[in-house]
Design goal:
The protein is mainly α and about 300 residues long. The chain has one domain. Helix content is about 75%, strand content about 0%. The chain contains twelve helices and no strands. Helix 1 packs antiparallel against helix 9, helix 1 crosses helix 11 and helix 6 runs antiparallel to helix 7. The chain is globular, with a radius of gyration of 19 Å. The two termini are about 20 Å apart.
Length: about 300
């Protein structure tokens, strides 16, 4: 990995990690309806990328399923969860995306994962259970466990999206993103209209500037810059080199929650975070070893 590639990777981790802080501040401090925030985000992204929209004959089922996981259900679970849980706990819990992907690869694709990755997945789940039990005092009465459960559901939705996209061939990331935005808009707008009220608060004089900045961060930095840069790295580097960036994203999310939002980390949450990250490290290590073995066998 060159210095340039490393700098890009760190930029991605910083953008994604701080997004938990941005979401928490926007939804809680500004009191913006979370589904409305998510719907507006994906719709703006879809409009920006609309010139890249293409119909992919024979692959649209996988594309639309990917959109349901990556552009709709993950946000439908994750954004409302930010009202209930802390940014730091959410940053750790979303890492369940990886063990969920492993489980689905076994159930759907028939892959074999072995004892190491099974153990890593079990550790990750155990760590999230500990996080759910370690609610800080300011969040204990606000459905903290429910928030953790919703984040886990969001991670599961992303895993479903990943498994769907895995079967897609010769479709650029930008074309996938525009479809994700369209599917997300179709799902999230009705949910916001039927389940929420007060959407106009986002445009009040005291909130509209900060809400606009949050949207710019979510759409331009997170969806376009960070995701686009991540796909650029995947084209240049082995996936086992890029994949551990999720751990740095988690660390930045936790630090951001504590330093910027003043969140408290209870001993149980810290233990749960360490257990979860340890499980993810086991999975990443095993994936790396498997990739090396395949390269050796093919050479």
């Amino acid at each position: 990995m060159s210095l340039r590639e490393f700098a890009v990777l760190m930029m991605i981790c910083l953008i994604w990690g701080l997004h938990f802080v941005v979401m928490k501040f926007t939804i809680v401090e500004m009191n913006i309806p979370p589904l409305f925030y998510a719907a507006l985000r994906v719709s703006i992204m879809a409009l920006i990328l609309l010139p890249f929209l293409r119909w992919h004959k024979g692959q649209m089922r996988a594309v639309l399923m990917g959109g349901l996981g990556f552009g709709a259900l993950n946000y439908a679970f994750m954004f409302p969860a930010m009202k209930l849980t802390t940014a730091s706990a959410a940053a750790v819990t979303i890492e369940l995306y990886m063990p969920f992907s492993i489980i689905l690869s076994v159930l759907v694709l028939g892959e074999r994962i072995g004892i190491w990755r099974t153990s890593g997945a079990a550790l990750a789940f155990l760590g999230v259970v500990l996080i759910g039990l370690g609610a800080p005092p300011e969040a204990a009465s606000e459905g903290f466990v429910l928030g953790i459960a919703l984040i886990a559901c969001g991670a599961m939705a992303e895993a479903v999206g990943a498994i769907s996209v895995k079967s897609v061939k010769s479709i650029s990331p930008v074309q996938l993103l525009v479809w994700f935005g369209i599917v997300g808009s179709i799902v999230l707008w009705p949910l916001s209209l039927f389940l929420e009220d007060g959407q106009t608060r986002a445009f009040n004089p005291e909130t509209r500037v900060n809400f606009g900045l949050a949207l710019i961060y979510s759409v331009l930095l997170v969806s376009l810059v960070a995701h686009g840069s991540y796909y650029w790295l995947l084209q240049r580097l082995p996936i086992h080199t890029v994949a551990p960036s999720g751990l740095m994203t988690t660390v930045i999310g936790v630090i951001g929650g504590v330093v910027i939002l003043g969140e408290k980390l209870t001993p149980i949450i810290l233990l749960g975070a360490l257990v979860t990250i340890s499980g993810i490290c086991v999975i990443l290590w095993r994936n790396r070893e498997e990739a090396k073995r395949k390269v050796t066998e093919s050479s």
